[in-house]
Amino acid sequence: MRHLRGPAPLPGVGRLLNEAGYRRLRERYPYALVADAIRDQLAHERSAGAVGDAERVEEVGARLAAWTGPRLRRVVNATGVVLHTNLGRAPLSRAAAAAAADVAAGYSNLELDLETGRRGDRSSLVAPLLTRLTGAEAALVVNNNAAAVLLMLSALARGREVVVSRGEQVEIGGSFRMPDVMRLSGARMVEVGTTNRTRTADYEAAAGDRTAALLRVHTSNFRITGFTESAPLAELAQLAHRLGVLLLDDVGSGALEELFDEPTVAEAVLHADVVTFSGDKLPGGPQAGIAVGRAAPIGRMAKHPLARAVRVDKMTLAALEVTLRERLLGSASPVSRMLTSPPDELRRRAGYLMVRLQERGIECERVEGASAVGGGSLPGHEVPTVLLALPGPASRLAAALRRGEPPVLARIEGGRCCVDLRTVLRGEDDLLQDAIEAACAACATVS
After folding, report:
1. Is the separation of the CB atoms in 317 and 122 below 8 Å?
2. Average pLDDT over residues 397-421
3. Are strands 246-252 and 416-420 parallel, antiparallel or unpaired?
């Protein structure tokens, strides 16, 4: 009787570790990690079938590279969306980024008063800059604006009612809704008015003995147009004062200077007891939630137990401090420069890049277009821009750019893969040129 021979048994992990190819991997990676990668590969082969020795070494090396390679990477934003949430929103100035790196690499006076040698308050590091910029009496910084709103409501309205317009029941990214924040804070939301029209009289009619505050939520990520009406903040301030309740204002994007028709933080501070906004949107800083306003309510927020859970770290504070100082000194942030760059400047950059690409045999076309502010800021406002339309299959080119080194995020418009120079930072034009050349070559090879 003839016996059928099964597949050759897979080699043992110990034997492979001593072979030349794996010894070379052990020079770059820890012994235990190489062993784990070999076990992973052998488990895969048991179900998918054995491979040759050379291919196995390559597969193990690829596993190790994937495990230890960076997942968070810098990309070139050529989408034309300035505050692109998926791409990390506001890019920091070089000085702000350097400050964060410097503080991260050593010790700092995060909670130490260098003058007295006693324990200090981390919020005091940036509070003077914020009060100077906004005219507020006090300021507090937490890790994002949703946390700032949650802390504000928890500390100032828990167990009581907060009156808010139906037209301001906003939802931010990730299905995070204002009613959910209100519920989590322990405050009871009282909706007034209609989706498109809410008057000061509506707030007054809804207020009662259990009312803690009137809340205005700036609809910074959408616009309702047409037959609309909203209560002016000055009128709400007068009503809140007459009722003896707080006026809270979430301005969202946080314009520190006049930009289009966006309300500024300083304007809101003139009327509201507490104003909250994001540090990583229009201020052009790191991710942070900022609350400014009268000293008494800000002090209650700072002493609330939730404040510690949402407090900001030293690197964020270092970057935010530099960002705010630059605003105080009149320096434009990268976000501000991108939003205000004239189309003629972008046209020149696009033309220069187009000529250099033509020299490499890549024929592009300069196209007029529009950029977006993004990040839930200034909805409906488009900024004139200049696009460079690339030759070739749009989706394949966009994928090749995205998978390149560095990754470049483009956009498809009119059936063509386009790069928007407005959001390509200064100093990235050469990187963009190299990436376009590589992507076009890759697409040509495939086709």
Report:
1. yes
2. 95
3. unpaired
What are the residue ranges spanned by the domains of the chain?
13-68, 76-84+336-446, 93-331
Half-sphere exposure of 376 (CA within 13 A, CB side): 24
Q: What is the mean pLDDT of residues 202-222?
A: 83
CA distance 297 to 154: 12
Q: How far apart are CA 291 and CA 225, in angstroms?
A: 29
Retrieve residue 405's tokens.
Answer: 């080194």
| Helices (H), ranges, 379-428 | 394-402
Domain 76-84+336-446, CATH: 3.90.1150.180
User: For the segment 343-399, what is each residue's pLDDT rounded down to a tens digit?
Assistant: 999 999 999 999 999 999 999 999 999 999 886 566 667 899 999 999 999 999 999
CATH number of 93-331: 3.40.640.10
CA dist., res. 367 & res. 186, Å (int)? 52
CA angle, residues 290, 293, 298, in degrees to nearest 5 = 75
- The residues near 344 (Cβ < 8 Å, ≥ 6 apart) are none
| Beta pairing partners, 278 | 289
Contact criterion met (CB below 8 Å) for 256 and 223: no
227-279 pLDDT tens trace: 466 778 899 999 999 999 999 999 988 889 877 777 899 999 999 999 999 99
CB burial of 151-161 (b: ≥16 within 10 Å; e: otherwise) equals bbbbbbbeebb
Q: How confident is the model at residue 224 (pLDDT cuts 50, 70, 90)?
A: low
**Separation of alpha carbons 247 and 250, rounded Å:** 10
Return the percentage of the chain with pLDDT > 70, whole number: 92
* Distance between CA atoms of residues 381 and 376, nearest Å: 11
Which pLDDT band, with edges at 50, 70 and 90, does 5 fall under? low
CA 35, CA 17: separation in Å to the nearest integer? 7
Distance between CA atoms of 12 and 361, rounded to whole angstroms?
A: 52
7 pLDDT exceeds 70?
A: no
Question: Of the ranges 18-32, 220-234, 308-322, which one carries the lowest mean pLDDT score?
Answer: 220-234
Q: What's the start-to-end Cα distance of the chain, in Å?
A: 55
User: In DSSP terms, which residues pair with 255 in a beta bridge?
Assistant: 264
DSSP 7-38: PPPPPPHHHHHTSHHHHHHHHHS-HHHHHHHH
Residue 80: closest CA among 425, 376, 420, 428: 420
Question: Which letter does DSSP use for residue 381 in this model?
Answer: E
